């Protein structure tokens, strides 16, 4: 499967996750530039469908088709939609967040 042609799409929750992580990193270190740089690294990694796929684990136990990939202390949760050639990023979870519970809450009842 050639992942170079896949488009990466971010859910609104994933974008908010990145903002929250940037705020958290800035608050912990006082380093705005460092927080932006680290968040940009996460975004760059997630924008590469081949990187995501090569470094990920299938997590059907949480949600059918879900995959997760580590980026430092952050986990990226996504799915590959092969027939549409899309990578859909559901969220970014930093420093031990319970991403399984959060993703189940985001999916709503009966969609986990």
Structure, described:
This protein has 112 residues and is of the alpha+beta class. The protein has a single domain (3-107), classed as RelE-like (YaeB-like fold, 2-Layer Sandwich), CATH 3.30.2310.20. Helices cover 43% and strands 26% of the residues. The protein is built from four helices and five strands. It has helices at 12-29, 32-46, 49-54, 99-107, and strands at 7-10, 57-58, 66-71, 74-81, 86-94. A five-stranded mixed beta sheet has the order 1-5-4-3-2. α1 packs antiparallel against α2 (32-46). The longest helix has 18 residues, at 12-29. The radius of gyration is 14 Å and the shape is globular. The mean pLDDT is 89.
Overall helicity: 40-55%
> How many alpha or pi helices?
4
Mean pLDDT: 89
CATH superfamily: RelE-like
**Helix-strand sequence:** EHHHEEEEH
Q: Output the CATH topology.
A: YaeB-like fold
- Poorly predicted runs of 5 or more residues: none
Topology, number of strands: 5
Order of adjacent strands in the largest pleated sheet: 1-5-4-3-2
Strand content: 25-35%
CATH architecture type: 2-Layer Sandwich
How large, in whole angstroms, is the Cα Rg?
14 Å
**CATH class categorisation:** Alpha Beta
The number of distinct structural domains comes to 1
- How would you characterize the largest beta sheet? 5 strands, mixed
Note the overall shape: globular
Question: Helices and strands: which structural class?
Answer: alpha+beta
Distance between the amino and carboxyl termini: 26 Å
């Amino acid at each position: 499967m050639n992942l170079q042609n896949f488009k990466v799409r971010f859910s609104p929750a994933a974008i908010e996750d990145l903002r929250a992580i940037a705020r958290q990193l800035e608050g912990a270190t006082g380093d705005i530039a460092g927080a932006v740089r680290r968040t940009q690294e996460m975004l760059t990694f997630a924008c590469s469908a081949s990187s995501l796929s090569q470094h990920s684990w299938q997590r059907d136990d949480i949600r059918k088709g879900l995959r997760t990939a580590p980026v430092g202390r952050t986990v990226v949760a996504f799915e590959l939609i092969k027939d549409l050639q899309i990578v859909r990023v559901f969220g970014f979870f930093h420093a031990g967040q319970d991403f399984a519970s959060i993703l189940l809450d985001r999916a709503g009842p009966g969609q986990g």
